[in-house]
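Moderator note: this is an archived Q&A kept for reference. The question asked for a predicted structure of one protein chain; the sequence and the answer are reproduced below.
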Amino acid sequence: MSETSSSAPATRCEYTYAFLILRLWLGLRAVLAGLEKFESKGSYSFAAYYENMKRLATGITGASFMPLWATKLFAFSIGYALITLGVAILLGIKSRCSLFLMGLTYVALSFGLMAVQESDGVAWLGMHVALVAGALVLVQHNRFALWRD
């Protein structure tokens, strides 16, 4: 009996550290994925972002059943969503909500890749979804946050 009571604080710390590592990885991944959408020829700009996203939306529409208005709407907002959610996850701002929205974002990105039959990308995003799900299971151990749920 004394063995379980002495190991409980250690377990809590391990879960806290596991969640912190997941939170850092997921947050950094989202921020950098969002920022890369603003890049063109080594420089970052809003003009490059809208050109890149227009090309992305047109490519998805051309290779799938999805209409251009839907792909443009998604593509023009995805970079901002990734950066915003990534920063929120990194800082621990409403972690449950931020992680849930990040998971939905990855599901939506996966859907787009499924529509164009890009299996490798779907598999990579599936791993992201799994990591978000794991973080959501551990979110109760969120000790380092600016704004808890």
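Archived answer notes: Residues 2-36 form the longest helix (35 residues).
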